[in-house]
Design brief:
single chain; about 375 residues; alpha/beta; eight-stranded parallel barrel; about 30% helix; binds pyridoxal-5'-phosphate; Orn_de-COase; pyridoxal phosphate; ornithine decarboxylase
């Protein structure tokens, strides 16, 4: 938790549940990433946290943006981004959204299928397009494999077709999975993309850009490699495979940029046991899966907790949200322990929750309002 977030919580005691996010930390993260990968152009993955103060700060720093929808493009434009600084990175787009983006001046689009490519040829003529390939997601705590990307052979054919359809076959992309904890995941993906680069060059298609996607991790309960380790592994692999004919390098960090800038402040609503002698207490918070903690699905992302009783004797807990849906149970198997003195009404903090929380909150499931947000 940054000192600014901690001061805000102390001085304002905002109603819970809420996210408090330090925008200066976002700037620090942007600068750290630039230092780790100085040759890469940063396209912030807006989906991680699309709040105006975040986007405006990043526009001021010269960031570009990876948008998943027309609505995210509008948010970037409203924050002051130039349309040329926006990539429409979702491989699944309504044609009306492509048309709107193109009319607004967006000229870079992702695809991973022929049908999508044909939509782009119709509705974004001449645009720069890049094909997403399937790569391994081993090491990712929030994998993105299978749903997006295509096999190399198909990508090769589609990139050739892109040129024939009057589009600019600009680049290739991949995503090694979010909260990727292994630097070698990027090395393997870069090797794969480099093979396709060569094949395409032999086929007369001069690809100029490699988009390494996101995945750069945040420290939750466990240590993760430093961003400089990712930078070194990535640049090592790029140089190994491309020599000094490096293509343009794009990265699309989401989680890394905003994750550790934010803290969710929540209230303990109930502490109970299912039997008198049950060693496991159930701790119910006023935020759960439907309040924005969607990444606790399968206990994939394991947030760290702070309580007013840290350091006291603790015991095993199951942690759950406040709604009447039993899937609104956050952690049952991940061996969470919380202080025995934790009680109803205590405030607890969930650390590093600046990414993928606010926009996952439901409108009013069980009547609960979406998560409140404070940007400091
Ligand atoms: C196309 C694309 N780029 C970038 C990201 C951001 O990934 P991360 O938050 O792991 O950096 C995502 C996440 O879903 C994505 O789908």
């Amino acid at each position: 938790m940054t000192p600014k977030v901690s001061r805000f919580l102390r001085d304002h005691a905002p109603a819970t549940p809420c996210l408090v996010l330090d925008v200066d930390r976002v700037e620090e993260n942007y600068r750290r990433l630039m230092a780790a990968l100085p040759l890469a152009r940063i396209y912030y993955a807006v989906k991680a946290n699309p709040a105006a103060p975040v986007l405006e700060r990043l526009v001021g720093l010269g960031s570009s943006f990876d948008a998943a929808s027309w609505e995210e493009i509008e948010a970037c434009l409203a924050a002051g981004s130039r349309p040329e600084g926006i990539s429409f990175g979702n491989t699944v787009k309504k044609e009306s959204a492509i048309r709107a983006a193109y009319a607004a001046g967006v000229r870079m689009f992702a695809f991973d299928s022929e049908a999508e490519l044909r939509k782009l040829a119709r509705s974004a003529p001449g645009a720069r397009v890049y094909c997403r390939i399937l790569v391994g997601n081993v090491g990712a705590e929030w994998p993105l494999s299978k749903k997006f990307g295509c096999e190399l052979e198909m990508a090769r054919e589609l990139m050739i077709l892109a040129g024939e359809l009057g589009l600019d076959p600009f680049g290739l992309s991949f995503h090694v999975g979010s909260q990727q904890t292994r630097t070698d995941a990027y090395e393997a993906a870069i090797a794969k993309v480099a093979m396709l680069f060569t094949d395409l060059r032999d086929a007369g298609v001069k690809v100029r850009m490699v988009n390494l996607g996101g995945g750069y991790p945040v420290r939750y309960r466990s240590e993760v490699p430093e961003i400089d380790d990712f930078g070194a592994a990535i640049m090592g692999a790029m140089t190994e495979h491309f020599g000094n004919a490096l293509p343009e390098i794009v990265i699309e960090p989401g989680r890394f940029m905003v994750g550790d800038a934010g803290v969710v402040s929540a209230e303990v609503v109930l502490v109970s046991r299912k039997a008198k002698d049950d060693p496991v207490r159930w701790v119910y918070l006023d935020i759960g899966r439907f309040g924005g903690l969607a990444e606790t699905e399968g206990e994939a992302i394991k947030y760290a907790f702070r309580t007013p009783h840290d350091g006291e004797v603790d015991g095993p807990v199951t942690i759950a949200g406040p709604t009447c849906d039993s899937t609104d149970t956050l952690y049952e198997k991940a061996n969470y322990r919380l202080p025995l003195s934790l009680d109803c009404g205590d405030r607890v903090e969930l650390l590093a929750t600046g990414a993928y929380v606010t926009t996952y909150a439901s409108q009013a499931f069980n009547g609960f309002r979406p998560l409140a947000e404070h940007y400091v």
